[in-house]
Amino acid sequence: MVTIAACQDLHQDWLRNLAGVTGGRTFSTHESEWAWMPARRQLVLLYPQRISPAGIRPGLAEGMRLGAQSVSVWMNSAASYAPLEAFGFRRGPQPLWMSAPAGVPQQYDAGSAAADPDPAEIHGPDADELAAARSHPRTAWHLTTRDEDKLTGRAWVYVPAAADRQEGAADPITGLPGIPAPPARKPSKGSLAGIFGLAVGPSSRRKGYGTELLSRAAAVAASAGANRLAINAAPAGAEFCAARGFELIGRGQYLNLDLR
Question: Does the model's pTM come out above 0.85?
Answer without folding.
Answer: yes
